[in-house]
Write a structure and sequence with these properties.
The complex is a heterodimer. By secondary structure, chain A is mainly β. Chain A contains no helices and 11 strands. The chains are: A mainly beta, B mainly beta.
Chain lengths: ~120, ~120
């Protein structure tokens, strides 16, 4: 059974650019959630994808968007990058749109730095 | 709005000592999670607490949940250096407009265990 994998692990972008982060969910999981973790803070919910559709969103602007593919992998896209977008981006997979008894499985994250 | 507060935010302790981290949350929630995060790494699931009075133990860590007080504790027994990390509690937040569940995290407790 494979866990959640994210790519790339580190990324440096310039303000105004666009970025795409990728996540492969754990085997058997059909739901992917994305979180942003700023330095020294707890993760903040961005959005969740279930059956290839966004079914919930946190307080993030529309320039944060995503996709989920038939194999349940997912992408997070951020347009018009701002310095405050610098953070660790975490992907979490779960089963059926809800957390299982065992909770969510988090990937190792992508560290994005915007300069 | 659901708020999750942890205290202390920073904890420095000697090996062999005991201590407790507290997690308060502001509204009713079905589940409470504890995670561990090492510097620059992802979140490792420690415990999922599902009901009032739930107690779970793994090694030197024990977590408990009092849903009436909206309080969870993470108790560390005879701390060792390897427990040094940041510990987060999280609760299932209210469903989004799209119907998804999301985790609401505390700010984390940075634990340093000194030899």
């Amino acid at each position: 059974e494979t866990g959640v994998t994210q790519s790339p692990t580190h990324l440096i972008k310039t303000r105004g650019q666009q970025v795409t982060l990728r996540c492969s969910s754990q085997s058997g999981h059909n739901t992917v959630s994305w979180y942003q973790q700023a330095l020294g803070q707890g993760p903040q919910f961005i959005f969740q994808y279930y059956r290839e559709e966004e079914n919930g969103r946190g307080n993030f602007p529309p320039r944060f968007s995503g996709l989920q593919f038939p194999n349940y992998s997912s992408e997070l896209n951020v347009n018009a990058l701002e310095l405050d977008d610098s953070a660790l981006y975490l992907c979490a997979s779960s089963l059926g749109g809800t957390g299982t008894t065992y909770g969510y499985t988090f990937g190792s994250g992508t560290r994005l730095t915007v300069v | 709005e659901l708020k999750v507060e942890q205290n202390p935010l920073f904890l420095s302790m000697q090996e062999g000592k005991n201590y407790t981290i507290y997690c308060n949350y502001s509204t009713t929630s079905d589940r409470l999670y504890w995670y561990r995060q090492d510097p620059g790494k992802s979140l490792e699931s420690l415990f999922v607490l599902l009901s009032n009075g739930a107690v779970k133990q793994e090694g030197r860590l024990m977590a408990s949940l009092d849903t009436k007080a909206r309080l969870s504790t993470l108790h560390i027994t005879a701390a060792v250096h390897d427990l040094s990390a940041t510990y987060f509690c999280a609760v299932d937040g209210p469903r989004t407009q799209g119907g998804s569940e999301k985790l609401v995290f505390g700010k984390g407790t940075k634990l340093t265990v000194n030899p």
